[in-house]
Amino acid sequence: MQIKGVLFDFSGTLFRIEPVGSWLRAVLEARGTAMDRPDFDRCVRQLTLAGALPGGPHPQQVPPGLASVWAARDRSAEEHREAYTGLAREVALPDPGLYDALYERHMSPDAWQPYPDAAEVLRDLRDEGIPVGVVSNIGWDLRPVFRAHGLDELVDAYVLSYEHGVQKPDPRLFTAACARLGLDPSDVVMVGDDRRADGGAAALGCEVCFVDHLPVAERPDGLGALGLAARAREGRATGREGFRETV
């Protein structure tokens, strides 16, 4: 195919959330809440198992009382907050105010770090005249994260699940994203880390490429290795079709 546009997932694809320990420590320090080392380590371990950090490890087990809101968590800001603060409340913390503070922290640009090659890949696509969209299952506005890290100017459109009331793999979200770029899905590549959620774009005819959801230091060139800008350039020059990954 000739690449005319690229869609990217957010968490685990372009950016990575901070580790659970850093997340908890930042909130404790901001609130002036003291916690001894054994309790801190216990809370980190339990919050990790609970899956309380959005963008972090998935819950080992979702409590029955949260099952329905968990399944729909990315369809609205309210459901997203309810799901994740509910998971955090499965862990005994010393201050009741910590649950909401932890949720607020994860929306801070300081809690997110772009992958090492994200800026270069987005810039190369911009240089090739390839429009870029971000399609994310999320319950809050991630645009400030991109602005804070200097990447907003390299994104042409954001399609966020909570703003549309549907979540990946629902094809309506990818349809909206392709429409924002003014492109037919068959001319668009979707890049993500979740084979089920991001793989939903294949139903529309998008090519889908995957990267591994790894810590930032362990994935220095996962995006660059896809060669998206080079493929777009070669496709224009020769008209040859590139590869299509089977999903």
UniProtKB/TrEMBL annotation:
Gene3D superfamilies, per this entry? HAD superfamily/HAD-like (3.40.50.1000)
- Has keyword Hydrolase? yes
Quote the SUPFAM superfamilies the UniProt record gives: HAD-like
Question: Which Pfam families does the entry link to?
Answer: Hydrolase
* Entry keyword set: Hydrolase
One GO molecular function term of this record is: hydrolase activity
According to UniProt, the name of this protein is: HAD superfamily hydrolase (TIGR01509 family)
